Amino acid sequence: MAEQKKQADKSFWKGLKAEFGKIVWTDQKTLGRQTIAVVVISVIICLLITLIDSASLSLIELLIK
Fold first, then answer.
1. Beta-carbon contacts of residue 26 (< 8 Å; ≥ 6 apart)
2. For 32-56, what is each residue's pLDDT tens digit?
3. Is 47 within the bounds of a domain?
């Protein structure tokens, strides 16, 4: 039983190493552009949510009065 566990452990680590070797790392220029794109899109979405929230709050306050 212990021998089977050792074989399974070796197989797991061997498979993990093989899968890790398949990873394709992006170059620094691409990573920088993608990071900037994510930040810009996040800021735009944040502004849109803030705008919608403010407008809906104003509308609700107008209806309550």
1. 34
2. 999 999 999 999 999 999 999 999 9
3. yes
